[in-house]
Amino acid sequence: MDTTRRTVLTAAAAAPLIACTGAQPRVIVVGAGVFGAWTAEHLRRAGARVLLADQMGPANARASSGGESRMTRGTYGRDEIYTRMALDSLAEWKRLSDRASLPLFHRAGVLFFFDRMVDYARQSIDVHRRLGLPLEQLDNAALRRRWPQIDFDGVEFGLFEPEFGALMARRAVEEVAARFVRQGGEHRLARAEPVGANTVRLDGETETADAIVYACGPWLPKLFPDLLGERIFVTRQEVAFIAPPDGDDSFEPSQLPGWADFNGGDLYYGFPNLEGRGFKIARDRHGAPFDPDTGDRRVSTEGQALLRAFAARRFPALAERPFTEFRVCQYENSSNGDLLIDRHPTDAGVFLLGCGSGHGFKHGPEAGRLMARLVLDGEAPDARFALASKGAVHRREVL
């Protein structure tokens, strides 16, 4: 990339949009997942006229924001920026959940457990202490007493965050989008095709706006292949739900938190039996490359076996319980796991938001707020969210 040219373009584009237009700005947000929906809402709150467009609707079955549940947590090792974002976003999620007819946030807590003290745990403890966030450190004996449903063999200690828990993903995004429309925003079911500066085609009709935000998750590299085709890595992940033992409440959210096991190299995580849907279990390891349009969303035999074996090891009461549901979702990973919140380097009025990288859902409110500030005020977020920081070699660093 010509860095001199980018510097000039970025400086020119940084002028506040409201000052440039002299009137109520019009913004089109393409993609009604968690990032797009919250961006549209924050733009609306700031006084913009906003059109939110999506080819399949908010949090649809193929979207990264689809599905039942996502974890919200403040444990991020050294990456304090994400702890802060998670905390700020949690306040928005709680307010939204309090106003909704059904809960969007379950404060079940989150438990991370480790076979030894590692830098990630040590740094998480330091960050929580610095920010004044509640975090309990429990040894093996305390873990066994508190959560006897889990076999903590080989575990040295755990970190428990009581203020965090589970977000009901699909329902939450639908609620954001619905409230956005009720408050005066516009939503349209349409397929988008980028044209260039300030211009997009929606179902073949050319639309212009003061700004266009593309928050299209795993479709971003398809819409911008030359720019993002080698910078966003879309991978396949498999998720399963298991029926808890009949008549046993030990796998309910009141008895079991969200959890993540950092032992043995592979990271597994899951949730208790949220709203009767089943015990959720997933392996947080980047899978094979995946096409969100044509990829096979049936779980593999190998994936079933891995999830079954882990469940039997850590949750013995589930060893013989039936699977009730499988899902295949996709991560749209940046090279290192950082989000993307930036302008297009050459097309004026075009902005890019994505790279959730498997941990972005919880940050939806804050990512949307940062993008709205960038669009309307020209205020760039932290440099680690810039396009320039996204490489072409996939090496995960943010967990």
Structure write-up:
With 399 residues, the protein is an alpha+beta fold. The protein folds into 2 domains: 3-64 and 170-232 and 335-389, 3-Layer(bba) Sandwich (FAD/NAD(P)-binding domain), CATH 3.50.50.60; 107-166 and 234-330, D-Amino Acid Oxidase, subunit A, domain 2 (D-Amino Acid Oxidase, Chain A, domain 2). It is 30% helix and 25% strand. It has 11 helices and 20 strands. An 8-stranded mixed β-sheet has the order 6-7-5-15-16-17-14-18. Helix 3 packs across helix 11 and helix 4 (80-99) packs across helix 11 (364-377). The longest helix has 20 residues, at 80-99. Residues 1-13 have low confidence and may be disordered.
Provide tags for this entry.
disordered N terminus; 11 helices; FAD/NAD(P)-binding domain; eight-stranded mixed sheet; D-Amino Acid Oxidase, Chain A, domain 2; alpha+beta
Quick structural overview:
By secondary structure, the chain is α+β, with helices and mostly antiparallel strands. It contains eleven helices and 20 strands.
Helix-strand layout with pairing:
Blueprint lengths: L2 H11 L3 H5 L4 E5 L3 H12 L3 E6 L14 E4 L7 H20 L5 E2 L3 E5 L4 H13 L4 E4 H7 L10 E5 L3 E4 H14 L3 E4 L2 E5 L2 E4 L2 E4 L2 E4 L5 H4 L1 H4 L4 E10 L15 E4 L6 E4 L7 E5 L17 H14 L8 E11 L6 E4 L6 E5 L9 H14 L22
Parallel strand pairs: 1-2, 1-13, 2-9, 5-15, 13-20
Antiparallel strand pairs: 3-8, 4-8, 5-7, 6-7, 10-11, 11-12, 14-17, 14-18, 15-16, 16-17, 19-20
